[in-house]
Protein 1
Amino acid sequence: MVEETPWQQALRYANRANPYPFYEELRKTPVARQPDGTYVVSTYREIVALLHDPRVSSDPRKCPVAAGTEDLGEPAAEPIREALTEPNIITCDPPEHDRDRRTMMPHFVGPPQAPHLISDLEPDIRRLVDGLLDDMKGKTRIDAVDDFAYPLPVTVICKVLGVPLEDEPRFHHWIETALDALDFGPEAASEEIRSRQAGARQAVQDFGQFAAELLDRYADQPGPGMLSALVNEDGPEGRMSKGVLASNALLLIFAGHETTVNLIAHSVLTLLRHPDALEKLRRRPELIVPGVEELLRFESSVQFWHTRSALEDIDIAGTTIPKGAPIFLAYGSANRDPERFTDPDELDLERRDNQHLGFSQGIHFCFGAPLARLEVQVAVGEFVRRVQNPRLVEDPPPYRHNQIFRGPRHVLVDIDGIRD
Amino acid sequence: MTWRATVEELVREFRASGRIVIVGASLAGLRAAETLREEGFTGSLTIIGDEPYEPYDRPPLSKQVLKGWVPADHTKLPRMREVDADWRLGVAAIGLDRAAKQVRLADGEQVPYDRLLIATGTRARQWPNPDEAALDGVHTIRSRDDAEQLQKELAEPPSRVLVIGAGFIGSEVASVCRELDIPVTVVERGSAPLVGALGGVIGEIAAQMQRDHGVDLRCGLGVSSLEGDAAGHVRRARLSDGSTVDADVVVASLGSIRNVEWLEGSGLAAGFWGVGCDAGGRAFDINGVVTDSIFVAGDVARAPHVLYEYQFLAMEHWDNAVLGAEAAAHNMVNLEPNYRPHLLLPGFWSGQFGVNIKSVGVPPFGDEIVFTQGSVEERHFAAAYGHRGRIVAAVTFDHGKWLEYYGKLIEQSGPFPPPPPGWDQPPDVKPMPAEFPDPRVPTAIPDVVLTGHAPSERTAEFRPRHR
């Protein structure tokens, strides 16, 4: 048996709750070639350099060998990519990327066309969060994932995009099924993961079908939300094709809540593990803004990204990433890089100069960041203010299977009550 | 008692009870004051400003304020922390007596200092003929009052605006006029807009952009005179080719003048290009000897820059004001070896005609340019400037997210032309002359000894030390 690299160890399910010691080991080789030919980049400086390097592609179609295919050894499963034939904004390069992102931007983040689009959602978000906390009244034990972290983002993204909320159970199931088969680690070859793959492929196809039908409906009968607008309105650079739009719709439905669920769940978990920080936030609610940034750094919502590859030989950190090599950027590791962040394993809600990679950087900087920030600020701020004496029941809690969107499946919390 | 103990004692004592005076109550002055307090300076702090206002932000003045989106008095700079200063606003400093360590104010008062920060910035160059400059409707734009007055007149609206000079400010004003649907004529002495800052190749693109937006752009021409009506309001301009332009608002955007006159006789290296200082903001005297008690920051400072052959660079950039002020303030309350350099890679941005223009490095230092990414036709592109085979600057039109990449290449003295991108490559990637105008005005920039960056050797690396 060949000894596993720190990266492979970081990806093992058993280490899901705490991959950080392996990241620390990994950072000793900032750009590390893996046995399957992938290059894993784990240090802040190098990741930022590559995020801004136009010789790095985000388009899997340009990568001659997809990350972790059979040819290179360990198979990694990625049904989400396989099922989508059209690119979305995170799986394509400029100029397509720029054009599609520019087309979508005014319908979402707004400025300069609609600068209040996100901030106007705040009352709704506040109402939703209040409702969720009100529902906890009388309970002594809650699940911070199912009862709190999940319902908020999914409701908000459905509203923003114009996806009927009644369809939520269907796509929730598809997403869960797809994510459970997503594995980049040594366990990808296991019987269990392999058996999940067929189901996952089907789930993504069904999900795609669902998006296409929704777009068709909006083409017939315009409705509220961003998707309808994109189907029906011409931007200055024309309209996106149906396929590209469907692919981006999937991306937005998925990314619009999946990452935020994990961030809220991790924020609650992290604060319960750091009672001093929680108490500080309770006393000084204004710290929620820098606090959420720190929570994003501390438990990055997206631990790494995997669709990048080198289009030329790239010399970096004493290594040459050869043309054609898949590149994994380990955000979760960069955010704990002591070369960039003082005492990176300390939670400091008042951390200065906190330019974490929780939303990445460069042209693929998280499209939904402004919405995610607002949701998490309201949710975590209200949780801290209203929940009385919260105590973690199980530490570490059970984690979801996939490594990219790493997050706890449940966070059980005992509480004394809910303040008004 | 050792020497070290003595030095530490000195620093401690100065921080506790020293007297610091900042001349200039703008961005640099304010950020310096905040940094001084941040660093534990508890002595007396005086901030002198000739305008009656608390420090305000200038970039919005030629954009949001002129459009009428933001009132001019809503541009006050946010306070990052309490500065607890004695604010002397509305009174100019008119003299510096280094022997007595005093700043002389216009109201006759003398303000003593132990350490002084010069942050007097620049002012707009006025229309040279004073009678014509005094006509109603003739403007410059630099201060809050300027912007407020001009905004009012644009709101009327005028039948035509004449902008003299197509640098960044002139171009931004022209852009605002078009957005407000006001006819505008731009007269530029050079071959194209932005030519001084970005060269003729980019200037041509900027010219096309202006014309596409309906600007009546006239290059290679000057304005010979301005004519007013009987009521003393400007009505017409006569151009150097004998033609005339009827306009009832004229904006003279003729660049800036450094506010150094008050330093005359002080013995400091102050002149046309600003106040010379080292990379730590310590002012030089006229002999090039560094002073211990006088510091400079912001637009008025000029310091040798390691990346540009140690030429003295003066930068009228927002982040230069902030970071220069922070470095100078730090050094004002520390001693060697705890001095901090201010080694900024210059950068600026401008918004005009719906395009976000950003630049990094010093474009006029380059003599060649190459388009590296995107499409010139669609005006989403990046271009790099080169000098002797190394990249020295880059400019982007609606492509700002790539600046970081070019910035890193510049810091590492990367090759020119830079490595080709893997995608989004423009059809023609051949370097061409960047077409900067010959500097006609003799400058005070001294030639300095080359101490690195030979074309054959690209090993030098620029690494500003962070806190």
Protein 2
Amino acid sequence: MTGVRVAGVGLTPFGTHEGRAGRDMFAEAALAALADAGVASEDVEHLNYGNFMGALAERQGHQAPLMVEAAGLRCAGTRYEEACASAGVAIREAVRAVRSGEADVVLAGGMERMTNLSTAEVTESLAVAADELFEVRAGVTFPGAYALMARAYFDRYGGDREDLAHVASKNHANALVNEYAQYQRAVSVEEVLDAPVVASPLGLFDACPITDGASSVVLVSESYAAEHDLDAPVAVTGTGQGGDRAALQDRADMARTPAAADAADEAYDDAGITARDVDVAEVHDCFTIAEVLAIEALGFYEPGEGIGAARRGETTRDGRLPVNLSGGLKAKGHPVGATGGSQLAEMTRLLRGDHPNSDAVPDATVGLTHNAGGTVASAVVHVLEVAE
Amino acid sequence: MSGTEGVDRPDGPTYEEWVAALDRNGFYLECANGHGSLPPRRVCPECGDTDLTQRSLPGTGTVATFSEVHVAGPAFAGETPYVTAVVDFGPVRLTGVLREVAADEVAVGDEVRADVEPDGPGDRPLVVFRPA
């Protein structure tokens, strides 16, 4: 089995790209990644592309061949759909293709266009990630589903809205210097608590924004990197995926996310590390409670202990395990089908030392990314390590 | 000729039959190992058993979690704010809209019964809960 290197990464700024077609955004990210890698577009053997709601937002299914064309590639492409984990699974399959020897160069990433829809339309489009019969028809929205999980968590383990507000405030603080982030502004704990309610107990600032954007990474085999003398110090050393029942009502425990725990266990085994080896993490904080559930499922905290991590300063930029130094989905934005790719791009930059927040983790050698679909009915975890 | 003509329907009840029965004789499915689930279903998702039997839903359940939703999709836009809840009915849990009680009067553990409102938002039958 060959090792996999991240040769280059590319992102569009996350935010509102009014009037820009999805194919244009993806082309920007893909060209940036190829330029960062120093890899010729004709060397790319396959495009692994993530997208969730393009058929609703742009009336455009069958997006992979369009994106191959837009990025100027000369290969086939496949679209991967796993709700908000679409790019995560696209990358995972790219890692597997390179490891198997099937390909030496794969471009992976994703795109989502969302702000051209009204808030109600986005709410409905995202709700499609839930169980249509037993949740969507009963009025469960995406924020509503995470609110149900937050209440279940509070009831089971304790914690309150102020604990969650510290998660939001932390991630906004991290985004201040990130030029790709949608919100480069500080948000205080008081502002989070005073924001309008979206779905109790969650308010507007407990939720990630509606975002347009695209992400790309160029994954190459170690032999290709050596032959082409690429500067690619970061390796993907672990990958894992987990699944769970689609509807919250069918889960054994609504205050836990076992799909993420399974994905993490697989990725840790694959990389030959444990949770204790991780220096820095990018986790799927589509809502503040989601970050809490993630850091527990990933093994950084025991169940019930993650709720106070941000408030205690343990996951802040100067804490023992900085989480979401990019700003996370919360402040950086969440173009759903692109998010998993952006996490890998941000983590690569953090480990390479060219991220504006790299100075928070100057000695980091092991990073983890966690990308979740729906209410974590699916989850993809990757381990990245500095290889040289 | 339609593509489904002459094709046998699955052995178990449909979702539509399940929701239509909620106001009189609500039911769930039980496998030989006692796992509960809801239709349409051919296989027990816990153990893979295919021998599924219809059982009566307990008359009352308890609120497992809830949220007052203020921002909704188009179908529920005229309903906001409304309280969505997941309710434990022994071997199964149901998700629906809580009626006849204000959000600040709800607590985890409250006892409710399941009902159905025909032609709810989006003109589809809506699972609702009312105080027991």
Protein 3
Amino acid sequence: MSLDPAYLTYPKRRLGYDHEIYPWSVIADRPPLRWPGDKGVAVWFCVSLEWFPLTPADVPFRAPGHMVTPYPDYRHYTAREYGTRVGFYRLLDAFANAGVTASIATNAAIAERYPDIIADIVAAGHEIIAHSTDMNGTIATGLPIEEERALIARSLDTIKRAAGKRPRGWLSIARSQSWNTPDLLKEAGVDYCCDWVNDELPYRFTNGLVNLPLNHELSDRQVITVQQQSADSYAQQLRDAFDWLAGEAGQDHARLLPIHLTPYISALPYRIDAIEALISDLAGRSEAFVAPGDAIVDAWGARR
Amino acid sequence: MVEAAPVADPALYDFQRYRDRPRIVWPAGKTVAVWVAPNLEYYEIDPPANPHRKSWTTPHPDAVGYSHRDHSNRVSHWRMAEAMSRNGFPGSVSLSVALCQHHPAVVEDGARRGWEFFSHGIYNTRYAYGMDEAQERAIIEDSIATVQAATGQRIRGWLAPALTHTPRTLDLIAEYGLDYTCDLYHDDQVGTVKVKSGQLASIPYSLEVNDHYGFFVYNMSPRDYADTLIRQFERLASEGARSGTVMCIPLHAYLIGQPHRIAAFERVLEHIAADGRAWIARAGEIVDAWRAQQPGDAA
């Protein structure tokens, strides 16, 4: 018994990547870059605003945070709704108190079901990033291209109707893409996606789409829910990251600290204190350019 | 080819209890040999399937899985390497040798810092499971030739790609003149591996304090992981006064080189460097020092 001889052939063993999606670029080799106001660290708060149908579809896969128990799973459905009804407003207040504008990655279903919350987001000056249709709108290879194209269009169009403005950014559920996703996003007029986590600055795909890396390791879901660490530890890690990035940026370079928050995780009464203090603390740092994703992408595009 | 039947005990080494062992001494009276093992890896985005194991657990492309690892080769390798260099720690690299083709700048950076390279297979997405002898010889020969061409170094060690082995792996690498394996986790000291021909030592690789275990198996915070490494060091440095021990710190830049972790890790390196009991060395040097103390077995 042995493996197929093809298993020991390496047709894409070459300089660069084994794909054409984006070119290789080492952060240390890039030209000097500063954020507006001569700041070294862009701090990007990105909040996911999600509607989980009580009937999870497992095609192509079930979203993280989706229903757990047999139908009807009121426990998880309502716990996530708590995040949208109550927790999100704690975050809005925290941002307002700190003078921070953020990106809100929003399911189209939120815009359809709760137009008031969209109005509140827009009134507060936050950016809305398209975040699929609802939490059944997962993408992976195998999803027929027409279905994916329609899903992207429905998400963008629905948010535009509610918000009055077409989103420039896209976040896939669980950051999961198909081979078609970057081209479909470009075709739909999206400027940037947040799905690839391999950098600490924006960079451009081969097709012109920008990727704004939303580090999944620094999400509240990863640290608090998956790794089961405290909100205090989570906030500590973000401060440590900021301090390191500020030192690395120095006077000539720029870095990006993405902070991905989920209302039903971070905005619970016993956790929100740590998150509020974190937001205020980072907003007050002299090296921080606190901005939503579109402003970071624009500043990067103008200055690089 | 007829495969040998599975055996319950591979008889790779003699049992030797952790007391009354011959005394191992490290240079300058140090009690613990400390080596840092960065994994410089390449994971393919769409590798061919091995019938025994899937490369990615999600449908390809796994945007997060692939790009998370890619963070090493764009950003965090240099952050990790600088922290090591600042504190006087060379690397002994488990290398996906195809990285010499994909991202030669990463390999050159390690070579420039005086790091030692051993093989971690061609890609970390090509598994040895199911390989016949000719196929396994091919990846060993490829590894030797590729690293030689890229760095001028003759590899001495092996860490199986994604820790995938065949029953003949250890015999084959010894036959090709490699003299240490990082694949056996049965001891805190270097020991002899029984192979059909040649010489093979097992050097402790300390999988339990691998940053992957720390962050993704045990779900530690960065500061908890740093505390774990310091405790590991303190215990091994203390026990090493009896007979020299080995502490390995296996790393992945995409994990340890994240901005929320690197400062805590650098404090570990500062602690070990300042302690005075550590012989900070490359894997091959540790194997050489151990071998020189083996009766009738001097290389």
